[in-house]
Structures are given as C-alpha cells and as structure tokens.
C-alpha cells in the first residue's frame, strides 16, 4: 500500500516524514490551494461580466463562491495530482482547527481523489502522536468547514463593500474589515481619552527612615496631614484636572511641601501601627494563543505576528503542541511530564500536593485542543533542544510556564506600617509597605510579566525591618515629590490582544494578522511598544461610527463570533446568517446603498479631535496626508502636518505654531553665497526642511534637505541651513578602498555611506558633525554586502519550486526579499531577522 499524506507546510511535512514508515509519501499544499479571487486578473473569463465577479461570491444565488487556484499554486496542485495517481490512499493531515479543516476540504474538491480519503489530526508532531493519529482517523467535519467559509465570506463581504466607500469618501487604498475596524476603533477611543485628559498636579513627601536597632533603611510615603487625607491621582477629575468635589482629600502644593519638609527636621517619628498579612500566589494557567502573544510581547517585545511565526516553527519542528488554541487544558501525559520535571529539577517540596487543572475563561472559547506546551511525554529542557535565538527563548518561556502549573504555591508576607511625625504644631502620617517571600514555590521556574512597566514583579523582595507599634524611628531625611496624573496608557500589542479576547472580538489565532494589517495599512504606528492611531484611523473610525455603528460595535462583533461558534457546532445555518448580514432588508449592502449619497466627502475627510481652543482651525486628511485648514470658504489656507506627527501629538499651541511657521515661510533666511538663491525653512508632509531657491515653472522641485531630528525650525539660522544644504557631506576616503565616505539625511533618517553600503546614525550622532572615524565604526557593524550594493540580512536558501536563491536584504529604502531578479518589500509588521523561507515563499507567491 502507498499512502499520500498532505499537510500545509514543507517544514511540517519534513518533520512528519521522520515518524512514518516506508510507503508513506508526505507533501505540502503550501497553505490553501484555492481561494476567492484576489484580483481581477484571477477571475476566469466566463465570469468577468457577472456583477458579483469582483466580490467572488454570488450573493443572489445562495452565496455560491467563485474559488480559483492562484497562479502560484498551480505547480503545487499539479505535483499533488501526480503523486495522487501513484497512491492507494489519501491522508489529509492539516491542522485540526477550522482553517485546517477548510484546507483539507479544498484539497478534496480540487484533487477529486478516486481512492479512499482519511482525515488525520494531532496536536503535536512527535512520533507517539503521529503513530496514534494513524490509528484514529475521522471524516472531514463539514460544520467546521462551514464556519471557516462563513468567516471568510463575512470578511470578504465587509471588506469589499465598505472599502470602495472609503476610497470615494476619504482616500484611495484604504480598507475596512469586520474585526480590523473594531480594533482600530479601540485604539482611536483610547487616544480620544488621552487628548481629552487634563492632568492635575499634587505633592507629597518621601521619608528615609531606620530603627535604632536595625541598619536597614526604608522609605515611607506621606498619606495624611493632621488627619486629613492627601490627594492622590484617583482624586482628580480627568476632564478638568481639578480635585473631584466629593473626594474629601486635600491638595498639598509645592510651597506647602517645602514648608512641611523644614518643620519635619525636628519632628518626633514613631511607628503607630503594624499590620502583617500572609498570602499565597498560584501559578498562571498554561499558555493559550492570546496569553502567549501577550507574554512574548511583554518579555521579549515580540509582535503578535512574530510570536505566531516563531511558535509555528516550534510546532512544525516537533518542539511544542499546536499553537492556535483557546484551551488551558493539559493532558494527563503533559501533567505527568511537568510533575516529573519539577521533582527532578527542584525536589518534592516544590511539587504541588495534587494535580492542578485549569478551566478556560476565554469568552466563546473554541477548538478542543490542549494548551500550548512542550511536545511529548517527556519535556526536553531548553538546553537540550539545540534551539537558538528567539526560537530558544520562546520555547524556554513555554517550558517554564508549563512546569510552573504543577509547582507549589508561592508564600508571601506583606507588612504595612503606619508612622507618625509629630512637630508639635502638626502631625504628618506616613505609610511604609514591605514584602517578603517566605517560600518561592513556582517563582523558582516562572514569574508572569506585567503590563505596567513600573510595577514590581511578584518574585521581588522588598522587606521592612522588624517594626512594632510605638517604636521610635530615626529620620535620615525627607524629600518633596511632585506628581502629575497621567492619561490612560495607549494600547500595546499585549494589551490590545487582552482587550480583544476579553470582549470576544475575533479569535486569538487571528490577532496577529489583525495587528499586522493595522500597522501595514497605516492605521497605527509603533512608538516603542505602544500602538498610536494615525489621522487616517480617526477619519475612518469617524465615518464608520456615524454611518455604520453596528460594524464597529463591540457587542455586535462579539455576537458574530458566537454565531460562528454555533455554526461550527452545527446549531445554526450558515447561509441564512450570511443572508441576514449582507442581503437582508437591514443587511450591509442595503445600509451602504442608503448611506452613500448622504456622506459628504469633505466632511468625511474632516477629523473631529477633542482639542480645546482650536479657534477656527480645522483638521483634514487628504491625498498627501493630514493638514490644517484656516480661513473661510474661498479664502482658505492649508498647512501640512508632518508625517511623523499623530493626532495625540497635537494641541492648540502646536497647531498654531505649524500655521505660523507655514505663513512665515515666505521670508527667506538669507542667500546662498555660491548661487545667490534665497534659502527658506519650510514645513511639509515629511516635516521641516531647508529649501534652496523658489518653486518656478522651470524648476518645480528645488533642492530640499530635511532637518535633522531634534532640530526645530526656530533653531535654524543661515549658517545652519547652509550646513544642512551641504549634505551629503564628504567625510574622507575609506582607508581600505580609497572610496568616498559621506554623511547625509535620507527617507529613513541620517546615515553614512560608503560604496553603496549605508549605516544609520545613532541618536547620539549629529549628521552635521560626525567624523570619518565614527563613520568607519558604524559601517564596520553593517552586515556583508550583497550584489548590487545592498546588504544581506539573512540567507534563506533556495525556492522549493525553481531553486532560485532567496535572501532577506536591506537597502536604502528598508528591508526586502531578493528572489532571483525580483525584489519584494517586507510588510512593516515582519521582522527581517526572523523571517523564514516558508514565509518568504508565501510573500513571493502573493507578489
């Protein structure tokens, strides 16, 4: 007997092949082998005249889909058909979730096998799991297929119906999405809160204290003055920045704090009360998809998409169980492996007294998998895997989290001491808090990260000396401290994933794609780890909120997910649901038709920001980016907002300054001594720049050079402008080649360049002052140079179909994939250092 086993990826095929005996041929479908048409050129000629052809779904005839095999998959299909001719049985071993079920069904629909077909599923790629799966075949679950198709159709119907509306009313190239638009609205709502926020200022004092019998110095913070509570951040109104009327607290100002500091020098200090409390901490559940994304973002700064790509590699190479799961359940095999690991590494005292189990708290949890854990019945220690880089770090994280679930609770003791300072005239009350770890328990293996970067982790000791009521204390000094209330923090990838999961929006397996799309389509930009919504995000969210509120409503979108779950369970008809959503009397198609004519494009481009004191300034998004408009109709003046500025950066003062700079740009700084042309400092779409000469009919693009970052328009005088216009500066000749080394400013900031090799300057480098020695140092750190003057980041190997070399390169305009003579840009959300050959092949196929 000959068996053909089909999986999704070459890596998975390679791993499974090791565990199957002779007679089994394992090959890959390279993901989906067919899909709805991605562009007009993929639509077969006989359908091109159909009104629904671009949509790819015949909504008038029972939502009949038009599936096509993309050109990049035709060779794959041909190879699978050839292998099928030589097989006696077809085994479909795609992933066991809805997506995998859909891929398996499409394979049957395309290959039309005339031999027996079996469905094989497993949640880890180990020899035991694969051998067991070959004895437990099942049929394709059509309910899972229907759920997957419904999700795909919903996304296509929403995107293809709303996106053209955004093109007409706001700007070409925009997109809307069923889940994507809700996620963008969350970012925008948080930014609105931050813009509306008014900060309040208050003071308190910190005291450094010690007992007479202990050398340990500890800190205490002031909480009361003469029995009246001092205000803290929670007492301030976010809308006014003033104390809430019912807070009952008093504000300590700067002068009051300094005066009190002086009087406390001669105060008597004593402990008035000590409260001790013991607590136990239990370990967090094992990882599911969303919590793995959150923790990898907190601890390693990994994006959700990077985390999933890394986890995919670990799964396909047999190191962890399936990484798309909502279940915190661990199998008995996993529990035994974890408990064995704990005993061998830490001893019996660190083993929890009984098996610890977890129930899933995820809203609408689906997919009856295990949690994400190390694969196999014996867990490989991280140093036994042979892994390196981010693969090793993520495996280590999963391994630690898993074994921690079977470890003993941590035991902690918290001490809260109340301290009084009596000056004879007034009494100041201080509080000191301490923490001691009595028994580390699972802390020995793993401590969960925190979304607040200033919060102390659980396993950090912060002890107080032994204190008792009425103990006298020695004050080593007090320090007044100023505090300013802070606006709510922007979402990071970790906190956005957490919020989406809490609200039941989308599914954890889709979060990485959602966030990547938001960044790649310029709805958000990264500022450190924070996701900052752009002007485009505000404009699109405004339009959808005003005209299609259901589509960006959390409850409505969450309910859609619950209905998809019902379809997967066979409890709801999928086509009737599609009809209700799209073609019904109150369906999306009708809503768009009804609203389109009433949406004024100029109003759709206008962004309402909750900024005080705008005084007639209006903000719009246009074809060339955001801009400020002043004046009345017929006499309006527009001022560009720099591209790196976001809505949250704006204030009435900044807007006024941008307009003033724009209005004053008619006045030159002076003349260039060489050409006699006027020199101007201007502000445009990409920020402030120096310009030599004026725009004329003969020369519409005079020489322009961007200002170095950190240099404001006000700081630029004629001499500085001349230096900037001299860029790129000649620094000298390279000692090895004799070729020129220069410094300049490009699209991605200041750089030095030698023989086509570019190196970015660091924040501490000044492009106007950097010398040859520093330039050579930076250039020496750049990776080896490839053909054509670009730098090779990573050699990926050869393309599986034609053998051409595939590399990740970096050039003047950022990272890209080099495939033969073709260059394919990398999405912003993909880290060039972590990309794999499989991912590169997928990007090449899309291109």
Low-pLDDT sequence parts? 363-367
Query: Which structural class fits the helix and strand makeup?
Result: alpha+beta
What value does the Rg take, in angstroms?
Answer: 32 Å
Q: Give the overall silhouette.
A: globular
Number of E-state strands: 30
Strand composition percent: 15-25%
Written account of the structure:
With 847 residues, this protein is an alpha+beta fold. Helix content is 32%, strand content 22%. The chain contains 22 helices and 30 strands. The strands form eight sheets. A six-stranded antiparallel β-barrel has the order 7-8-12-11-10-13. Helix 5 packs parallel to helix 16 (574-583), helix 6 (180-196) crosses helix 14 and helix 8 (289-300) packs across helix 9 (304-316). The longest helix is centred in the first third of the chain and has 28 residues, at 142-169. The radius of gyration is 32 Å and the shape is globular.
What would a concise description of this structure say?
This protein has 847 residues and is of the alpha+beta class. It has 22 helices and 30 strands. The strands form 8 sheets. It has a 6-stranded antiparallel barrel. The chain has a 4-stranded parallel sheet with strand order 2-1-5-6, sandwiched between helices.
